[in-house]
Amino acid sequence: MRTLTSPVKLVPWLVAMLSAPVLAAGAHDHGGGRLDVSIEKERITIELELPLDVLVGFERAPRNDKERAALAAAGKKLNDGAALFLPTAAAECRLTKTEVSLPFAEGTKTAATGEHADADARYEFECAQARNLAGIETTLFRDFSRLYRLELQRVGPVGQAGGRLTRKAPVVRW
Amino acid sequence: MSFLARLALASALNRRWTLGLTLAAVALSVALLLGVERLREGARTGFVQSVSGTDLIVGPRTGGVQLLLYSVFRIGNATNNISWVSAQVLGQHPAVAWTIPVSLGDTHRSFPVLGTTEAYFTHFRHGDQRALSLAQGRPFAGLFEVVLGSEVARALGYQLGQGITLSHGASELSLAAEALTQAAEHGDKPFTVVGILAPTGTPVDRTLHVTLESMSALHLDWQGGAPLPGLKIPAEFVRKFDLAPKDVNAVLVGLKNRSDVFRMQRFVNEFRGEPLLGILPGVTLDELWGLLAVAERALKAISALVVAVGLAGLVAVVLAGLNERRRELAILRSVGARPGDIFALLMVEGVLVIGLGVVLGVVLLAAVFTAVTPWAQTQFGLALGGTMGGTLPAAAEWPLIAAVFAAGTLASAVPAWRAYRLSLADGLTPRV
Would you say residue A96 has pLDDT above 90? Predict the structure, then answer.
């Protein structure tokens, strides 16, 4: 009898999966971004890295007014950290710091970095009732329709964990 | 109702062999179903405990899972090294509290040999943030001194002060080479056992620990993985050479401030000296479980199918028995049992077998795991987690048990319904 997937056939596949390089620095994945979340006492630090393509659909200097407007809109959204990330309400968190670096945006000098460009953002929240923190929801998927997944790394009082946020599961939980 | 239970029991006892076998099938299938779940949980806890104190693992640019597997679990091989200079630069980074270099490659009677520094004994953490402790002796201090993991000492019967020699490369290779030429033995440079570690339930137990300098000294007169012909540097002269390591396989990093880990990871991944990879062990473990999820799901599905087969067997046996019990059931009817009573009788029997099967399955599983846990620890250096040795089912197992019980009860209703129908239609003199 012929089997559809023999275990032997799975071996190369497993090997391939195991040897697949992780998304190290410099890795650039259209449709996907990286999200690092660390929690220490009352402070949540969120670091976000998104390919520019996800935000505006191009990765070069804007060529016309429409593209310039798209870039400005993306910058505006990224700068509104309190709308992008929603920690559990009961934890009473408020945004205390926002740093956004958006290539090609007005007022920023962007050195030529090859074929790809990434936007980086860093947000800090202070939570009055950090014990009540059960999760952080992100609205990034709603704001940026070209974003499909975020590779998540998080560290906190319960240790390290990884995962993936998607359109259907846009919440960091622990 | 109690007379029904008694009646069911008496009737079941009468058919104890067929029912007994069915019971065994149910018990085995329950044990398998719960065992798969327990093994999964246990393996995860065991793995997590082995890396509890390390914030970041730095190695050559390779797969994250691969780096984690060889640097912590001694599974697989390193494909590349990182230079000792890079390792030192890492150690001097202001955010770093400690670094433990990891240099693998040699073995002793199939146990891995780890070249490292004294930092290993002060900073390595396992389980619930526990430091390593020595059961006997002291940490290594100089050349050709070795500290044994507890399992190495136990399995090979080594004592303090004993002299041992290490082999180059993996065990199977060196065994073959040993048989041929003794070429792969570092026989000219014996080591002295100066310490034996207390058991940890991690791969540390299966490891021999030496200094990085000892590791370099071993390979002074080697080149390209083999001894240089005609060149022998005796142990007493190696001190004249520069024994500073040239490279290591990986570096375990502990940070002063845990939340600096992403900053540090970026520093490592963008390191200018050479291509490096920094991984968060907890994150990479999750990645590994993600990869294994397919296999886990397959195992789960198979064990669920086995339970289904067990229950089908039960139904088949009871159904087949109905024919020979037509007379029994007809007599019961004639002395006043209502059709509902017949239905209940068969249900009680089925539920009894299922219930007993589940209990037996749980007991069987506890027995098996009690027997297997020490073996897993010696074979893989993994304490298979907290729930493994437990006799009572863990919280996650109750829903499975409930599901089996519910499915079994439902399945028992099939023969019960058939008996109910038969008892209506059948007379006292069934046509045979």
Answer: yes
Kindly report the CA angle at B364 between B375 and B199, in degrees rounded to 5? Answer: 25
Report yes or no: A133 and A93 within 8 Å, Cβ to Cβ: yes
Any idea how long chain A is? 174
Residues from chain B that touch A163, judged by Cβ atoms under 8 A, are 286
Which residue from B259, B266, B286 is facing A25, i.e. has the nearest CB? B266
The structure tokens listed for B17 are 């062999």
| Gap from A23 CA to chain B (nearest CA, Å) | 9
Domain ranges of chain A: 25-173
- The string of pLDDT tens digits covering residues A54-76 is 888 888 888 889 988 999 999 99
Tell me, what's the ipTM? 0.75
Sequence-distant (6+) residues with CB within 8 A of B15 are: B321
Cβ B143 vs Cβ B201: under 8 Å? no
Q: Judge whether B301 is closer than 8 Å to chain A, CB to CB.
A: no
Q: How many CB pairs under 8 A join A and B?
A: 74
pLDDT digits (tens, 9 = 90+) for B14-48: 888 888 888 999 999 999 998 888 888 877 887 88
CA–CA separation, B95 and B260 (whole Å) = 7
- Here the tokens at position B214 are 């000892």
Residue B12: burial class (beta carbons within 10 Å; 0-12, 13-18, 19+): buried
